Amino acid sequence: MTAQADVTTVVAEIRTALEMLDAVIQVRLEERKGGIEHRPLSIDDGDDGIPPLERYEGIGPLAAAIGMAGLSAAEALILVAAIAPLIDERFDAAYAALTDRDGVTGLTGEVARTLVARSLGARLDAAALLGPHGALRASGLVRLDPPDSLAGRLTPEPALAAWTLGLPAPEQRATAEFPARPLTTVHSLTDVVLPARTRSRLTDLQHRIAWRERVVEDWGFGRHHDNTAGLVALFHGPPGTGKTMTAGAVAAAAGLPAYVIDLSALVSKYIGETEKALANVFDRAAHERCVLVFDEADAVFGSRTEVTDSHDRYANQEVSYLLTRIESHPGVVILTTNLRGNIDDAFQRRIHLAVEFAPPGPAERALIWEQALPPELPVAGDLGLASLADRYVLTGAQIRDAIVDAAYAAAAANDVVTEELLVTAVRRQYDKAGRTVPS
Ligand SMILES: Nc1ncnc2c1ncn2[C@@H]1O[C@H](COP(=O)(O)OP(=O)(O)OP(=O)(O)O)[C@@H](O)[C@H]1O
Ligand SMILES: [Mg+2]
Fold this sequence. Notes:
It contains 21 helices and eight strands. It is an alpha/beta fold. The radius of gyration is 27 Å and the shape is elongated.
């Protein structure tokens, strides 16, 4: 949903949708004129006056969103109603006129129900449409807040709203309410250089993601066993060995969005709010089938020590909550840590698959050196990459950083990247790590 749509397409599509919504609102306002006592619930399931789906057909982003989520005509109208106030606030006033509750503005679940349903049967159907399993909410297109009351506010997902309006997607940052950010990557799994053993573990992981539906749904494991729907993987290894990169690439290869949650920031920054915030993340991930990546898992799942102060006690309570949620989560959870040994035993048992990211050996380093140089980078003849890989014991992240460093030095000198610049950059990596450069 990142590409921006053509402006005229967007404008034409939105205008048609708003005109249809307007027409429905006028009819509903007219129906309410007689007052509450003149609105007997009709049993007749006749025409509820909802514009048919064909009317949205087109090539614009709204039509695409409706098609992708498989919305019904009633659901499509609710989606339009949720987006409409972002274009014109008079829709909020119209919604206020469509409820008997005082002081309510904006689109609530109840107003949405009134919009799409006149008869009793349709009103009952509408309650299900707006429930957590209805396509609108299950697809994450709209949110109901609070989620368990139709008196709650219905709002469109911000990225979706921006997309249907032809605006750039809002940048998503971790916040106290939603302490996760999208994990995007330019890398595919072929870019990650790993020894055969690690790669075969990753293939296992991919199989579990790919065949989940067959095993869990078709073969009944989800119905006949507890907690078999999800998948918890642990990526462990020293800093800079490609754990986060691989997590992003695995999600991308499976065609799933990924969110990353920095656990060390979570426990220190958002103390007190953590449970509710984590609930938001898990709920959304379950709807959107996101891969959840918990970075620095040892910050939370480290061996639980004696309770020494209130901070620790609180943290332990959070850990229990997180454990429960991870265990019952229907999707993929990837935890990364530098120290597998630091992970609590109770937690180790919940991990389905552990993947070790060892520091790269000389052969892997040679490949990383080769692959990390962008093809556009101007270089001088032979860079002696094989010898650099042989001589210097670096991680993938250090090799990447050294190459970036050398590229800047070359750009500043209006020159090309040379072996000498690379060696200087490698030495800096050694300095930064407080290690002595091999002679
Ligand atoms: N095995 C690898 N193959 C190719 N490139 C790598 C590899 N490991 C690291 N890199 C490069 O280093 C960058 C940083 O690696 P990444 O952030 O994935 O490491 P990490 O293991 O998550 O580290 P940390 O434990 O510090 O979070 C990658 O984006 C990639 O450019
Ligand atoms: Mg990482």
